[in-house]
Amino acid sequence: MNEPAFFETTAGPGVVGQPLNRVDGRDKVTGKAKYSAEYALPGLTYGVLKTSDIAKGRIKSIDTTAAAKEPGVLAIYTHLNLPKLAKTPNDPDGKKAIGAPMGFLPLTSDVIYYAGQPVALVVADTFERATHAATLLRVTYTAEQPIATYTDPKAQLFNPEKVQDGKADGYTRRGDARAAMASAPVKLTAVYTHAINHHNPMEPGSTTAVWEAPDRLTVYESTQGVTRTQKSLATMLGLPQDQVRVVTKYLGGGFGCKGSCWPHTVLTAQAAKGVGRPVKLVLTRRQQFTSMGHREDQTQTLMLGASQEGKLLSLIHEKTSTTSPWDNYAEANSKIINILYDCPTFESHYQLARGNVMTSTFTRAPGEAPGSFAIECLMDDLAYQLNIDPIEIRLRNYAEKDPSTGRPWSSKSLRQCYARGAELFGWSKRNPKAGATRNGRLLVGMGMATASYPVHNSQGMARVRLYADGHAVVQAGATDLGTGTYTVITQVAADSLGLPPEKIRFELGDTKLPTAPNSGGSVAAGTVSSSVYMAAQDVWQRLTKVAIQDPKSPLFKAKPEDVSVEKGRLQLTKNTAKGEDFMALMKRAGMDDVEGSGQGKYGAGYETGRPGNPAGPNNNTESTGEHSMHSFGAHFCEVQVDPDLGTVRVTRWVSVHGAGRILNAKTARSQIIGGSIFGIGAALMEATLRDPHYARYTNSDLGDYHIPVNADIPEMTVEFIDEHDPFINAMGVKGIGEISMVGVSAAVANAVFHATGKRVRDLPITPDKILGTKSV
Amino acid sequence: MTDHFTPDSAAQPDGPAPNDGRRSFIKQATGLLGLALAPPLVGQAERLTALSKKVAGVSEMKLKVNGTVRTIKAEPRTTLLDALRENLDLTGSKKGCDHGQCGACTVLVDGRRVNSCLTLAVMSQGKEITTVEGLAKGEELHPLQQAFIEHDGFQCGYCTPGQLMSGVACLKEGHAKTDGDVREWMSGNLCRCGAYPNIVAAIRQVEKSGFKS
Ligand code: FES
Ligand code: FES
């Protein structure tokens, strides 16, 4: 490692780690926080999409006459008149230049690939007029029979070379898993299905595009990464990157679906160009279901071979799922199955079928969430089969190093997570027998599961401007999904500069600021905190230079390497009495402010000094360092199941994680709770149903796509294991956005099994499935 | 303000079964939409639209929001939510679904919580409309706003204005006496970030503090 580490340089307790209230809390509770669709620009107009009712075929005609006559209508764009783009993803070159997952841009031809595909964009002076005019468009189609899912008999399955946007292998093999399986004394095979899930952030996708000049665009966008959106837009519009500005000051949740630039954003920019006025387009909730990706429908088959003592000998994993006509997207479920337990052999395959669907995309814990469902349910089955406690079976297979690479872990506190979680939950009081615990007529079950998430290789920039009056402005082009980036980075800056947090203003969410990676893949906290910390070190180096040249400074003629900084005071490390406060120094030097910048690395790039990935997560280069870097944790769940109705209530929840340094105990707890609730949704209720004949979603609204409501959720207990990891980044932060939901659906399913003796392997676990499954 | 909570209110579940909270809420919310078209309320709509000069096209409307009467030009089909957000630049009230299914747009109308996306602006004339922007008294936050900050009752904040308005009403309705009550009566406000336990804690703290609105 060639960078300093926060561990070594912060002296004394600061605000990092403290349960500080959110610095943006006041703006959020007073309604002042401005989300991307809330900029009242002069001359603002409204864009509304008209989308396709058929999933496959061609547009025969679009009659715009009636719509165009409506008062206030300014323009109607279709594939016949959309202003030309420099590049589209519709050809291989364009696709490569723009970057996945937008593999297809509508309104470029008459071809329909999926239901809900935009076929026209209406711009009018009010939202009502644009909405109404869109209903007056008459579109006729030549419809063909679509493929709805991989289970359609007409679907053609194929083995992709790569999945997840080319970032994971379609086939993996470690040792001879088949031979090991054949000779294993204990063999289990199970098939798991996962319904289509939609991210459904409460804030729908939105774009407000305004052309500041004929060749300069500003976009207020709901995105998890302003830079990635800027790059995609610039490429498609044929503009230099700096001529596109993307702003996201507040984001109403993302969960992966706002991780990329999607077609509606590009179409809005083109419409704004066409009408010569700012255009705002907000997806309707229904359109949200077909505009920004989803977690794909999938089947996993997992085979496990073990010894009589429960020691794993072989794991073989297969996944089949639906992808879009233009993409090979599948979440890489096998990654977590490959690393979670010590198992000498492993094999995994992916199979895809092209359906007439919008592409699937990263959804919170992409791959890890459904992958952990399979492995963690099967480990539970193994425990029951061999009459071993579920925690004990996991300890017997505890991986002391990364089984997939043989590399040591940078840190791993999973044993402590199991032990502490079991203690908080009261695991020892659990009757090991399934179906044997009751509360009145309700069946009570307790289940647990392991969680893990990798530290993805990433890097980003930050800038710190320290003023002589003791204030500082800190900047990084990151985004805060609601996860607390504003707050935790303020805390890091405060400690790095030795200032109280109220003297810091942290600005984010604008491509004018130093480039930060996408907030996704749990990289934001680790990368941005490190870059801010590095920028602060740059400030101190600059000020040290000034001090040692200033005859009036107590540090005059000192060697820079002998000077250190503690709480804003520059002093000799060996003789701390000799030194001075930065404000005194700056005033004497006539400096109003001093600016420093820094690059923070996260993951393998930090350890090796090699470049990280500026785009951030999901690039699977995390295992290039000396260490394998992962967070680990354990979830414990209690359910009560109504034996007559099959309804499941989660009644208790405990999560314990080891995720490196926790920057803010309060927001971190909220994030873990939130992720667990997201997982409980996937476990018990979330499913978007695609009509097998028409390939259209039948429940694309929040009344019919159930996400957890307040009454579904009990009080939850969250703890962190204190973990010091010097290998991952300057701050020792691993990130917790995704791990919070990994293993959750398995913990719920395992609790349901313990309650009922019924093993439901099809998510979500709805009452019909419980009633329709036999006890083992 | 008097308690306007009456049996036809959208937020009142018809049964005590906690399992059914959300389903019955949504049923009732859908019911409300149905009611809006039922004869007695059509009469009311006509009465209210009579305050405007025209029943189609753009006309002037007066909305009393957070104590101030403001005039907007909008169409009869403009929802209260769009009038607040697009005409009055009061963007605190959020649009999550536009269908009465998420609660992000919750505001108080004459002290009662309503989904402003299911309410026409033209019908809201002559009523007291309170939005999240009107909760604080100047710099001094409403105790529930403060409690949301203390208990971290949000992450992204997008559902928060709706949660706050619902929470204020929930306290006033007397539906915050137990954690279970709060969970039940707050189940019309979805939070995808999953801040529910913290929202319950915040509302209960204000309830226990004896706060009277
Ligand atoms: S926007 Fe009104 S309930 Fe969702
Ligand atoms: S705080 Fe994000 S939806 Fe509730």
CATH level-four homologous superfamily name of the largest domain in chain B? Beta-grasp domain
CATH topology of the domain at 408-456 and 623-770 in chain A: Aldehyde Oxidoreductase, domain 4
Strand content of chain B: 5-15%
**Rounded radius of gyration of chain A (Å):** 27 Å
CATH architectural category of the largest domain in chain B = Roll
Name the hetero compounds present.
FE2/S2 (inorganic) cluster
CATH hierarchy, class of the domain at 408-456 and 623-770 in chain A: Alpha Beta
How many helices of chain B in DSSP terms? 7
Distance between the termini of chain B: 9 Å
CA-based shape of chain B: globular
Mean pLDDT, all residues of chain A:
94
Flag low-confidence runs of chain B.
1-42
Give the biggest sheet of chain B: 5 strands, mixed
Shape by Cα distribution of chain A: globular
Structural class of chain A: alpha+beta
Q: How many strand segments of chain A?
A: 31
Order of neighbouring strands in the sheet with most strands of chain A: 3-5-1-15-12-13-14
Provide the succession of SSEs of chain B.
HHEEHEEEHHHH
Mean pLDDT, all residues of chain B:
83
Largest interface: chains, residues each: A-B, 68 and 67 residues
What does it look like?
The complex is a heterodimer of chains A (776) and B (213). By secondary structure, chain A is α+β, with helices and mostly antiparallel strands. Among the domains of chain A are: 6-33 and 458-602, Aldehyde oxidase/xanthine dehydrogenase, molybdopterin binding domain (Aldehyde Oxidoreductase, domain 4); 408-456 and 623-770, 2-Layer Sandwich (Aldehyde Oxidoreductase, domain 4), CATH 3.30.365.10. Chain A contains 20 helices and 31 strands. In chain A, strands 3-5-1-15-12-13-14 form a seven-stranded mixed sheet, with helices on both faces. In chain A, helix 11 crosses helix 12, helix 11 runs parallel beside helix 19 and helix 18 (665-684) crosses helix 19 (744-756). The radius of gyration of chain A is 27 Å and the shape is globular. In chain B, 54% of the residues are buried. A five-stranded mixed sheet of chain B has the order 2-1-5-3-4, sandwiched between helices. Chain B is built from seven helices and five strands, in the order ααββαβββαααα. Chain B is globular and about 45 Å long. The chains are: A alpha+beta (776), B alpha+beta (213). At the A-B interface, helix 2, helix 5 and helix 18 of A face helix 1, helix 3, helix 4, helix 5 and helix 6 of B. One FE2/S2 (inorganic) cluster sits between chains B (154-160, 191-193, 195) and A (202, 253, 482).
